[in-house]
Amino acid sequence: MQDPIIRINGVGKTYEGGFEALRRVDLEIRRGEIFALLGPNGAGKTTLISVICGLVSPSSGDIRVAGHDTITQYRAARKLIGLVPQELTSEAFETVWNTVSFSRGLFGRPPSPAHIEKVLRALSLWDKRNNRLMTLSGGMKRRVLIAKALSHEPRVLFLDEPTAGVDVALRREMWGVVRRLREDGVTIILTTHYIEEAEEMADRIGVINHGEVVLVEEKTALIQKLGRKQLTLQLHTPLSRVPDALAPFDLTLADDGATLKYTYDAAAREEGEHGIAALLSALKTAGIRVKDLNTRQSSLEDIFVDLIEERA
């Protein structure tokens, strides 16, 4: 496997007053992946990004970006990073073209009108290149932030709540932009409150809570491993109660008596004495006829809520 592009070893951050924002974080980000960092407000997501980008000094531990130490080799490390912050801060009277070009110069990169044009076209900003930022919509201003972050051709892009306050259509359009960046070899790390954003785009998921990374997993493996399934059974004849013979399955009977629900661990109960086959056999033995059935896999949001509640 390729060397990780980011290595985080034992990173902690304690602010004046004693607040511990990060607690011995160990994390590796792979080259070319989309990594989603999930966590509730105040979990440490933005602090971790700020430490990696050199905006905040860690209290302990070390971070390397493509082998460059973010403290002792700050310039080399920072040149590889693009950061799109949460806040829509901008130079109101400046044009889109000028502000993006200026950002490139801040990183010591020579002028490259061709690259700036490529970035603006990719973000559907080319037609707005001569517009002042104050005239743009909130969604367009957020695209400008991404363009600024990409102006110096970074290999790692941090997106801190990239689609907060953006409508659904624009959010999906921006997901497309992120995928194209990944295809160009850019490593993407995003924090998000929108679980569907992580479910749609991420290769791997990290969950942070109270300053600790509590889980890192491939997205599909995470859903398979921790996901629950719910089997809904529509009955031919309503029941007044669940028969005693079915008690081991911990079924829930709907108020109308015509629907049974069975929630089970997808990994542990596909087979065995409490699996679906055993349940259907028990129903038949009890003389209960099933008219229809369907299953539902738990979403990443269900899993995330469970993880946070477990570790609260």
TrEMBL record:
The entry's keywords: ATP-binding, Nucleotide-binding, Transport
Sequence ranges assigned to domain ABC transporter in this UniProt record: 6-235
SMART domains associated with the record: AAA
UniProt-listed InterPro entries: AAA+_ATPase (IPR003593), ABC_transporter-like_ATP-bd (IPR003439), ABC_transporter-like_CS (IPR017871), ABC_transporter_ATP-binding (IPR050763), P-loop_NTPase (IPR027417)
Record-linked Pfam families: ABC_tran
Record-level Gene Ontology MF annotations: ATP binding
Protein name: ABC transporter ATP-binding protein
